[in-house]
Amino acid sequence: MIFKEQFLAIQGYFMYHIENPLMNKYRKEETMAFTNTRGRYASFGVVTSLPDNIIDSFWYIIDNFLKGVFELDELLQFELINNKGKTTFRFSQDSLATILTFDFNDTFDPFFPREIFVTDNNGKETIMLPDEYTLI
């Protein structure tokens, strides 16, 4: 049985991949990444391996600590780290020399994926696993 959230994530994931080549070919926007949000999605791999509150924390970090502070690339990289049983998010991107960590009170699960990517494709922002990103 597939849950509504999983269906929406799958739908969003495939919608992202189908539109991605077309959108990039014809659209020429000169805006900074993560400033023109048209939709937010989580891939199937993310939805099936992380709880909702952890997924929401990525958007919270981007909206409240990264947007407007740093010039963000289209690809953001996060690591999930065990910090005394709680979850720490480590943010980095290739164009920044700075690495930021964000401590949350959510219980860390050793089965969480260690690395998470967040992409922006012309306003369609998606949280995905690195293996899923390589399929783009």
UniProtKB/TrEMBL annotation:
Origin superkingdom: Bacteria
Pfam families linked to this entry: DUF960
Protein name in the entry: DUF960 domain-containing protein
Originating organism: Streptococcus constellatus subsp. pharyngis SK1060 = CCUG 46377
